[in-house]
Specification:
This protein has 19 helices and 22 strands. It is of the alpha/beta class. Strands 2-1-4-3-5-6-7 form a 7-stranded mixed sheet, sandwiched between helices. Helix 8 packs parallel to helix 13 and helix 15 packs across helix 16. The relative contact order is 0.10.
Length: 578
Amino acid sequence: RARARAAGMRVLGPNSLGLFNTAAGFFGTFATALDGAWPRAGGIGVATQSGAFGSYFFGMAQQRGLGFSHFVATGNEWDVEVADCIAWLAADPATTLIVTAMEGCREGRKLAAALLAARMAGKRVLAMKVGVSEAGARAAATHTGALAGGDKVFDAVLRDTGAVRARSLQALVDAAHVASVGPMPAGRRLLVVTTSGGIGVHAADAADAAGLELPTLVDDALQAVREIAPLADGRNPVDTSAGILSDLSAYARIAERALDALPCDAVLCCLAHIARNPTHWAQLREPLAELRRRHAAKAFAAVGLADDAVADWLQQRGFAVFVDPSQAVQALAACAPAAAATGLATQPAALSARVIGATVAGEHQAKAALAAQGIPFAPEVFVADADEAVRAADALGWPVVLKVVSPDVAHKTEAGGVALGITDAAALRAAIPRMRDCVLTHRPGARIDGYIVARQLSGGVELLVGTQDDPVFGPVVTVGAGGVLAELIADVELRLAPVSQAEALAMLRGTRIGRLLDGWRGAARADVAALARLVATLSEVAWANRGHIAGIDLNPVLARPDGAYALDALIVDRPGTA
């Protein structure tokens, strides 16, 4: 590798199945998949780590009639990585669709940049990743680490770059099939036209599960459909009924009326057995082809039983062909734009002003370090005994919260190290020894450095805002449901750090708990702008301290009408960085 780099030469492998370039006629591979399955020319470029996995996908796709521009197996990746291949294919004019399969990744930001380059080039990436990273699980010293394991980060990166993750080889082939025969859906709106009400309902269920929208026909449009077929029913799915069997060309006319009335991006034509009946197919074939020509910008899929000749005829005219309606819907959904694809920061600024520097231990020190960076906290005082605690509470205002300060207790609630709603001096004096005993019972030998007395804030929405330094992708920021239920509910959004305030706001809107921020059933609206600033600031701190800080937890963060305030803070240093 060193000699090759010194000479300016790239190395593929070792342990690589090789590559082929269909347009150039170059086949530098020993793949046995080529025996009896010579590649057709086409727009699919494949970048795979595993040669056997990639060649098996090639065999399945070739059998489906799909064509290829390039195939590259990177093997052990001494030099050329899958990310390099994706970036190259993104700029390759012969490639219209990129399929990638990988087991792992050494440079996450490099992969993210390559995926983003493909998106900017207008090329969809279909990704298959096997193996759930254990590296992320080892980072679970914080709530954030438990909620943002390595595989979840990979999912988030794919989503934010507009790539699609397939969960099976069949799903990968199906999506590639849709992308190869015609344009991919420009949005997520689907029209279903069927000769069977039951099949239509099944397709509608599949569409809902896949996150596709089914816009509905208004009364006038439905009446226009019934002028063609009086027994037709349904506003989408549109059921033509069996009444059209005397003239199957009516199917195409009904679909045309529905397309004129509905804004949609993809069309699912459920044909059942029509293509197997020569008389029926002769009536429908040319009207169906004309329908496809008239709506060339939309994605079309045909579902039904057909022989190879009919299936080839449909594919040549831009129909993806399936037998199972739900399989067709899932493939269309995989090729539709991701609802949350908003991009990500792959080359963030240095943000040197956010460096914390020295090792931080304990909640009070963590809060002080983060407050200096602009993270807002509820007013609090560090105290050593009951007398100091009472004086602090008098100054802050009652009621107050009492928390233990111990470097040996990361999650204080589970250890009995948090007492809420303390309203007077007597209750505060009694709470301190009780808390000490409870903590030492939970964690014998724990060092107790003192206590924090904080003004108790009420109302608002409790969230978790945290970061982790992922071993592959680097700093990741997480937002979601907070408090003691954070891991139980696991309602979170992840994104590579740092994020802007606009990106932070999009993350918050992507969670279920985010709905509460605008006021739920009469509750006051939270200061969402202040909350977004807090998230963005913490993400900058995480990036500036990458390699030094393993994770940060702010849990809970209280979002109120007058601002957003972190009530607890935990900073976990990377081992060996102290």
